[in-house]
Amino acid sequence: MGQPKVTVLHGPNLNLLGVRQPDVYGYETLDDVNNALGETAEMQGWDISCFQSNHEGELIDAIHAARLDGTLAIIINPAAYTHTSVAILDALNAFEGRVIEVHISNVHKRESFRHHSYVSQRADGVIAGLGTEGYQAALNAIIKSCV
Questions:
Q1: I need a labelling partner for 2 at 20 to 30 A (CA). Which of 48, 72, 83, 136 fits?
Q2: 15 has binding-site annotation
Q3: Residue partners of 20: CB distance under 8 A and separation at least 6
């Protein structure tokens, strides 16, 4: 058996991380986030796959692929799909590993429509408001829980 694997999924507009609303999301880019996660995963002996899409169906396809490729856990920041996508919830419900939902901002301090998450109904854990450090917290929790 190879290294344990985690898949990180970034939803719509996260490709603009670092330039879109830096007062809310900070100045780190998505590459910065993915590179830091890759370093942590490598040091812990994990394989990591990071994927971003602005398209719901591509995120669902990535979840389906994770079901079949030996992925033990998914870290997902569904971004705006958090509040709208029953389809992503259904895909995650078909995934048997751990799921941690991450939000860079504290969605509960923002507009009321952001207070509801479909994904949280499946997530084993939710991290919100820690900035991009939330991704590292999610990865560390997965590594500790899957050993």
A1: 136
A2: no
A3: 13
103 is catalytic: yes
Tell whether the model's pLDDT for residue 4 goes beyond 60: yes
90-145 confidence digits (pLDDT tens): 999 999 999 999 999 877 665 665 557 899 999 999 999 999 999 999 999 999 99
Give me the pLDDT at residue 19, please.
85
10-52 pLDDT tens trace: 999 999 998 877 776 778 899 999 999 999 999 999 999 999 9
Which listed residue (81, 103, 118, 135) is catalytic?
A: 103
Residue 108 is labelled as binding a ligand: no
Catalytic choice (25, 81, 118, 135): 25
